[in-house]
Design brief:
The chain is α/β, with parallel strands linked by helices. The protein has 11 helices and 11 strands. The chain has 2 domains: 163 residues, Bordetella uptake gene, domain 1 (D-Maltodextrin-Binding Protein, domain 2), CATH 3.40.190; 116 residues, Periplasmic binding protein-like II (D-Maltodextrin-Binding Protein, domain 2, 3-Layer(aba) Sandwich), CATH 3.40.190.
Length: 328
């Protein structure tokens, strides 16, 4: 009996020691994290708009965290190569990705290739902001306002066309969402990249395109193209005279950018990354940089982004299903 009591007390003492040691190690890990450079994957080529924005975020996260956040471009397959690398990386807080909403689209249009689950295979660090797209037309070939453009699109005899930077891209889905709401009809002409898709509109080969605002504004200001609406809740700071799609009665596509990690990053490390990202996005000087790059800064924390991704996955899924978009 005495021996059993001794063993029980010894077991309880061992449990207490283990708890203390585990807590101590966890606190030590958090206190020292990060103690080496963090890799930020950008799943697009260097020099593009998304790459520029990602590098702004990486630079300022480095300042906040006290360790370099090193950018690694892993472009290809509409972002799938870089995203897949992130999913397969160790959940130690030293690999993150600067991502766009396209990572939600990929498993919906190409489930055989993009085999990850957006709700299970990532740690949502935080949203950086929304990336407004604008509906652009050639002013010589098309009516002067959105209402007239919609009416023209409802006439089958008009045989209207639109370009995008690829099947399943944000540009493609934004237009399909627009067509479904307005009852318009247009033939899709995909290109490889926003620049050639925009060039096709400038040259009059296609009627319209949804592109990032930063791509279209120089042509709009020069009178070579006309922006009919902005796909954001608020007007562009760089062009406040342009009406949003919502103001004109059309719900628009929501593009956004954020930072994710692989699933199962320890909570304390993920929290530290989220706090650093929040400090970056809410810094007035950084916000100015991001705005100049075409982003509308809007921070969301882990929970907010997780809820947003769940709702977006459903919304985007409906657009893909109704438009019958598939790459596989």
């Amino acid at each position: 009996m005495i021996l059993q009591i001794f063993r029980l007390r010894a077991l309880r003492l061992l449990q207490v020691v283990l708890v203390v040691l585990t807590t101590g190690l966890s606190s030590l890990a958090l206190a020292s994290y990060p103690d080496k450079p963090i890799r930020m994957i950008i799943p697009w080529p260097p020099g593009g708009g998304s790459d520029v924005l990602g590098r702004i975020v990486a630079k300022h996260m480095s300042d906040v965290l006290g360790q370099p956040v090193v950018v690694e471009n892993r472009a290809g397959a509409t972002g799938l190569i870089g995203t897949d690398m992130l999913v397969k990386s160790a959940p130690d807080g030293y690999t993150i990705v600067f991502i766009a909403d396209s990572y939600i689209v990929s498993p919906l249009v190409s489930p055989k290739t993009a085999r990850y689950d957006v709700n299970k295979d990532f740690t949502n660090i935080g949203m950086v902001g929304f990336f407004p797209l604008v509906l652009v037309v050639n002013p010589q070939n098309n009516p002067g306002d959105l209402k007239q453009f919609i009416q023209k699109g409802k006439d089958p005899a008009s045989k209207m066309t639109y370009s995008s930077w690829g099947i399943g891209s944000s540009s493609h889905l934004a237009t399909e969402m627009f067509l479904a709401q307005t009852g318009s009809q247009m033939l899709h002409v995909p290109f490889q990249g926003a620049a050639p898709a925009m060039t096709a509109v400038l040259g009059g080969q296609v009627d319209s395109v949804f592109v990032p605002a930063v791509v279209a504004l120089p042509h709009h200001n020069a009178g070579k193209a006309k922006i009919l609406g902005v796909s954001s809740q608020n007007r562009l700071a760089a062009a406040p005279q342009l009406m949003t799609m919502v103001e004109q009665g059309v719900q628009s596509w929501i593009s956004w950018m954020g930072v994710l990690g692989p699933a199962n990053i320890p909570t304390d490390l993920a929290d530290k990354l989220t706090a650093a990202l929040k400090a970056v996005v809410e810094n007035p000087k950084v916000r100015e940089e991001l705005t100049r790059g075409g982003l509308d800064p809007n921070f969301m924390n882990q929970k907010q982004l997780t809820d947003f991704v769940r709702s977006e996955n459903i919304r985007v899924g409906d657009v893909v299903k109704n438009a019958k978009i598939s790459i596989d």
